[in-house]
Amino acid sequence: MNELPIREEKLPEYPSKIKRLASLDFQRGLAIWMMVFLHVFNHMIDYSSVAAGQLFSGVPPYTFINSAFFAFSGYFGN
After folding, report:
1. To bridge 38 with a disulfide, which of 20, 21, 54, 77 should be the other Cys (CB 3.0-4.6 Å)?
2. DSSP assignment string, 1-52
3. Over 80: is that where the pLDDT of 47 sits?
4. How far is CA 73 from CA 10, 14, 22, 29, in A?
5. What is the reported pTM?
């Protein structure tokens, strides 16, 4: 059987791989991790016992590290 003279035209070549930026992937992963962590933490901790007036006063239950952590998780968790 004779073959028909069909010519296949080449499609224009596109870049075979899209270059991804590792820093954007890292930031996306960090954002997802922080979102999950802070929402879970926000549902586990009762913030009603934290007195806003004494939060950064340095009184023993409210050290600066604890106060910064409460402020950070309370702000970003909500």
Report:
1. 77
2. -PPP---PPPPPP--SS----HHHHHHHHHHHHHHHHHHHHHHHS-GGGS-G
3. no
4. 56, 45, 27, 18
5. 0.42
